[in-house]
Amino acid sequence: MAWDFSTDAEFQKKLDWIRVFVKDEIEPIDLAFNHHFVYDKTHPVHAKVIKPLQRKVQEQGLWACHLGPDLGGLGYGQLKLALINEILGRSSWAPSVFGCQAPDSGNAEILAHYGTDEQKKKYLQPLLDGDISSCYSMTEPQAGSDPQEFKCRATKDGDEWVIEGEKWYSSNLRYAAFAIVMAITDFDVPVYKGASMFLVPTDTPGIEIIRNVGLGGDRDGEGSHAYVRFNGVRIPDENLLGGEGQAFAIAQTRLGGGRIHHAMRTIAMCQRALDMMCERALSRVTQGEVLAKKQMVQEKIADSWIQLKAFRLMVLEAAWTIDQVGGAQARTEIAAVKVLTPQVLHDIVYRSLHIHGSLGTSNEMPLIGMWAMMPVMGIADGPTEVHKLTVARQVLKGYKPAEGLFPSEHLPDRQAAARKKFAALLEHEVGQQ
C-alpha cells in the first residue's frame, strides 16, 4: 500500500539547503532592489549578484528543475517542484535565481514541447541560460478572459505573417527579448481552432507599447504589464509556434502548470504571514498580557494554521496527481487549488495584518503588499469563477440522475428495500415478540 507523507532523505537535504540559501542570500535582494528589475536583464544586479547565485544553484543541481535533463533541468515531477516552490515563494527574486521565473518558465515549457530545433536554439536556450526575459501576450483589452472576443489577427502574406491588433497586460514586455503572441488566424471557425501562437522578437518594427500598467500601489510609469498595439508587425513563417490553429492546445500546456505553481508559491507567502502573526502574538503586550493569551488571537492562529495545512495538502495531492496521470487528467485538482489560492492568501494575510494593527497596514511591514496579491491570484491564469465551473462540471461527470421520482437517498424507498431484503429476519423478530 503506497500511502506516504515522508520526504526522501536526500531530497530533504536539498530542501534544507534551499531554505537557508533563500533566507540568507536571496531575501535581502528583495529589500534592496525593486521587484521589476527581476526581468530587466540589463540591470547590473543580474551580472553582479544574480549570476553568481545562479551558479551556486547549478552546482547544487537545482537549476530549472521543471525541465528535463535534455534541456538542462532535472525533470523533477510536480510533487518535488511543489516542495521547492513553497520555499521559493518567499522571495520575488528566488524563482529567477533557480531558473523557474514566470512567465519564462511556462514559455520555456511550451518552446520545449512545440518549438522547432531552430526556435529552441534562438529563443529557448538563452531563456534557459537566464540571459533574456520573455513575455506571454494573450489577453486583450476588450475581451477580458473570454477568447471568443479576441480580435488581434495574424494574416498570411507570402512567407510572412502580419499581426494587427491590441493586447492587454502583456507582462514584462518592456524588458523581454521576445513575446509569444496569440492571434486569430481563421475567424471562420471557433476560436479554439482558429487561433495560433507566434514568436515575436520585441525589436520588430510596429510594436507600440501604449503604456505600461502597474499593480495597485505602483507609481505611475513603473509598471511592466504592457498595453500594446501590434501595427502590421511582420514576422517570418518560421516564427509560427506549433501548427496553425494550435494556440489553445499550446496554452493549456502552459496554463495548467502556471496555475499549480502559483498555488505552490502562495503556500510560502501564507507561511510567512503565519510566522509573522505568531511572532507578533508572542511579542506584543495588551491589557496586561501578551496577545498570544487572548482567545480571539488564538482563534486566528488556529484558523490560519488549519487553513494553511489543508491547502498545502491539497496542493501536494494535486501535484502528485499530475505526476501520476498528467495535467489534462488532473484538471479538476488543478482548478480546485486555483480556486482556493486567493481565498487562503486573503484570510491568512489579513489575520496577520490585523494582529499587527496599524503597523500591519504600514509600508514598514510587507503584509499590505502580500494581501494585494490576493485579487491577482483570483484573476491570473483565469478567474476563480471559471475554475469553479470546471470543478463542478468534472465532479458531475461522476454522477447520474435519480432513476425514480424521488432521490436515491429517499428514506421511505430505502426503508422499503431494506425491509424486503431482511424480510425473513424481520418476521422472525415479530414472531418472538
Describe this structure in words.
The chain has helices spanning about 10-30, 45-60, 80-90, 95, 105-115, 115-130, 190-195, 245-285, 295-325, 330-355, 360, 365-370, 375-380, 385-395, 410-420, 425-430; strands at about 135, 155, 160-170, 180-185, 195-200, 205-215, 225-235, 240, 285, 290. It has about 425 residues and is α+β, with helices and mostly antiparallel strands. The chain has three domains: about 10-115, Butyryl-Coa Dehydrogenase, subunit A, domain 1 (Orthogonal Bundle), CATH 1.10.540.10; about 135-240, Beta Barrel (Butyryl-CoA Dehydrogenase, subunit A, domain 2); about 250-395, Butyryl-CoA Dehydrogenase, subunit A, domain 3. The strands form three sheets. A four-stranded mixed beta sheet has the order 1-4-5-8. Strands 2-3-7-6 form a four-stranded antiparallel beta sheet, with no helix packed on it. It is globular.
Estimate the strand proportion: 5-15%
CATH homolog superfamily of the largest domain: Butyryl-CoA Dehydrogenase, subunit A, domain 3
Order of helices and strands: HHHHHHEEEEHEEEEHEEHHHHHHHH
The count of β-strands is 10
What is the average of the pLDDT values? Answer: 92
Radius of gyration: 26 Å
Q: Domains counted in the coordinates: how many?
A: 3
Uncertain segments: none
- The structure class reads alpha+beta
Indicate the percent of residues in helices.
40-55%
Please report the distance between the alpha carbons of the first and last residues. Answer: 48 Å
Number of helical regions: 16
CATH C-level name of the largest domain: Mainly Alpha
Q: What is the molecular shape?
A: globular
